[in-house]
Amino acid sequence: MAVKLQPTKNLEQLWIVRCLSTVLLFGQISLHILQGKTYYGKVLEHTVTAGPASLPPVLLVSGFAGMIFTIQTARELVRFGAVENVGGAFALAFCRELAPILTASIIAGQVGSAFAAEIGAMRVTEQIDALYMLKTDPIDYLVLPRVIACCLMMPLMMILAVIMGITGGAFAASYFYQVQPETFLESVRDFLTPSDVFIILLKGLIFGLIVAVNGCSWGLTTKGGAKEVGESATTAVVTTWVAIFIMDFILALILFEKPIL
């Protein structure tokens, strides 16, 4: 007896609908923020989750990434006798792009998935329906505090990641290529301008918004049981990564691309 394969069209349509619901949720969040509707007491709780609780992996990854990037870059610059400029190359690539992307990816994996799983579990156990019965808007009680916490902590986490990356890069340049830390830091300072720091903070704000909104949206649209909660958490991370890279590409075009004419 032949086994009929289940069509994937319904799954694709469901995925598209849930992605569109993320856009609609962003509109709801913007409206509620303008109306001042949120439980600020819950913000501190999620600030700890999005900040200190995620700090060790962010610093560890940034430190090693900084050392790896410096080793690979300095190896090539040695051929041209320009190893003293390794700090400038580090500033242009790692500080502008790699550190924000790595930080946002780690926060998405740790915090975004947690948001999706927590809210998804509340959805399938009908706790969100209970909030409606208590005349409490889930957007105000569950979503807004998480969004505010991520938007506040992501820029700070990125700055700490950049500092840790620079520290790791200076150590690698000194230990493996005998480039003095002062020379490395001077080269970083020559290439890294105050506008770059502002761009890093701007990316932190935008990426934090993407992580929180996407995680909460996939949690709110979860249906079924424990299996679906896990699927929502996993898919929330993947779609968040995709959205972050797309947004980073758009920001790079807007902020760094020179006009042709």
TrEMBL record:
Its main location: membrane. It comes from the Bacteria. It is a multi-pass membrane protein. The chain crosses the membrane at residues 15-34, 54-71, 156-177, 197-221, 233-256. GO terms for molecular function: phospholipid transporter activity. The keyword Glycosyltransferase does not apply. Pfam families: MlaE. InterPro entries: ABC_MlaE_roteobac, Permease_MalE. It is found in: Membrane. Keywords: Membrane, Transmembrane, Transmembrane helix, Transport. GO terms for cellular component: ATP-binding cassette (ABC) transporter complex. The keyword Transport applies. Belongs to the MlaE permease family. NCBIfam families: MlaE family lipid ABC transporter permease subunit (TIGR00056). This is Transporter. It comes from Nostoc azollae (strain 0708). The lineage of its organism: Bacteria, Bacillati, Cyanobacteriota, Cyanophyceae, Nostocales.
